[in-house]
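Please decode residue identities from the backbone states below.
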């Protein structure tokens, strides 16, 4: 069940920079290390609905229903473009002390959650990925699926926190350079817009 092949494949998937990684890195740079952890929590929580959909078989329904897939897909596209616009327009300087109020932490996690929940590709990915590592002859395949899902989510959280810590390590350079701040803001905005355009152009 939890084989070296599963762990290696999961690690590769988690390490590939995507929407969640970009959001976590940008959050850690702007708000500090703790905020990066909150973003990681939100991104990890955003996986839960997709895993639940896979377990319940809803992902298969969405895969066969073009309308359902398109609705979720374009909701995700619009949200990515919104994040890109908000990032581009944010002219505030990067925070220095890294402390954030609980309401801010909630907003950070909610935004990260929405970024992942509005990614229909995750449901399709889990539908195709997880069953490969479940023993079809097992007495309780659902239990295996849940365990594999838990391992994947834990790996996601740990890797994303790592990305946030790495970003925080370079934060002093960013804080001391308004020019670097400006170009990072533009870069993150372009990355979110590019991910939105890629999702909009994708087929399936």
């Amino acid at each position: 069940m939890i084989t070296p092949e599963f762990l290696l494949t999961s690690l590769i998937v988690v390490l590939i920079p995507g929407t969640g990684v970009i959001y976590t890195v940008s959050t850690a740079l702007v708000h500090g290390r703790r905020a990066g952890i909150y973003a990681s929590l939100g991104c990890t929580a955003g996986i839960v609905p997709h895993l639940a959909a896979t377990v319940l078989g809803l992902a298969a329904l969405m895969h066969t229903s073009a309308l359902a897939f398109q609705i979720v897909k374009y909701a995700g596209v619009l949200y990515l473009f919104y994040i890109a616009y908000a990032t581009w327009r944010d002219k505030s300087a990067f925070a220095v002390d890294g402390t954030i109020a609980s309401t801010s932490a909630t907003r950070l996690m909610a935004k990260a959650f929405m970024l992942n929940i509005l990614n229909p590709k995750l449901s399709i990915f889990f539908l195709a990925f997880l069953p490969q590592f479940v023993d079809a002859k097992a007495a309780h395949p659902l239990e295996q699926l849940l365990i594999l899902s838990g391992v994947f989510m834990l790996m996601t959280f740990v890797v994303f926190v790592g990305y946030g810590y790495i970003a925080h390590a370079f934060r002093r350079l960013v804080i001391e350079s308004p020019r670097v701040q400006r170009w990072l803001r533009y870069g993150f905005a372009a990355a979110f817009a590019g991910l939105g355009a890629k999702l909009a152009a994708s087929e399936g």
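Observation: The radius of gyration is 18 Å.
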